[in-house]
Amino acid sequence: MSLKNYTLFSFIFVCLVGLIAMFNVTGEYSFSFLGWVYTLPSAVWVVVPLIAFFVATMAHMSYYGLVNYLKMNSYKHDFEILTEQISSKFLGHEEEKEYKNPEFKTLADFIIQCDIKPKSRFKLNIPKIDKVAETIHKIEDLGEFIDISKYRLSKENSLMQKNLENRVVLEPKYAEEVLKSCDKLTPLCQKAFDTYVEFGDLKQIRKLDITPTKAIAIKLITRFSGSDEEYELDKEYVKELCAVTKFVKEDYISLAKVLVKKLNPDETLELFFILSRDNIEAVGAYIYVNLELEVIDKAKELLNQSGDDEFLEFKAFLCLKEKGKNLRLSSFLEAIQK
Fold first, then answer.
1. How confident is the model at residue 337 (pLDDT cuts 50, 70, 90)?
2. Where are the domains of the chain?
3. For the residues of 137-166, what is the DSSP string, one character each?
């Protein structure tokens, strides 16, 4: 029964008892206490204990109602703190929280010690947590850039890094801003560099203390090679770039496949001659460009100088060519790799 109903029915009950006592009990009754004498109608003495009992029960119920109210408030408070801690955990942001109830403190300790992450379609019907899960889904799964400044994540936070990577992909010009603050190589800085290579100035690219991946090195060399480019790559820098990215035979051949289509024959032959002269790994690429450009005598000379188990694919191609087969080297290599 609610306190309001209890008060109403108690009032009605006391009034009924008082009326019945008034019409059925006559006379007066005296009560002495500590020298004081109280004389009241007998009907009043019937009602007074009921009123005293009512007051006592109201005090009892109010006290425990207040205790229960404060307890429920503490549970609500701890629940809000717990949702914040789960949200922070999802965001990769660890922080200690103060709890009023040991049950919630135990749950919080469990969360801190576990690695939890929302699934792509996570939904808990708790707005604060669901909002964070949706944000993570958009950043990590959909590749969107979201304004997450309100979460106050550190620059090193993995979600923050991924979000900025997404921005670099969506806004390539932003890569230049990222590179200005790169004091160490991170996936974000590598991503920004890879993107900047596609449109940045060669002089600025060379100033950056970032080692490109092999694929980006090929892209960089290809972009700035050729007389039609504003800044033509010098051959020594190409050699240095191949060395620092640790090119192997296959990488040099991949570079040759691209450059043979872009540079004129003399430039291509000269570049790969220089590369092969200083690095044995580039010899295969030099043979490749000679065969591709139909400089058969030089290709034969290089193959004759190689070991019996080296460059077998080129030797097989040359053998077929000598037998009158009309083949393209690139098509032949693709066919034997399948």
1. confident
2. 3-90, 214-338
3. IIIIIS------GGG---TT-HHHHHHHHH
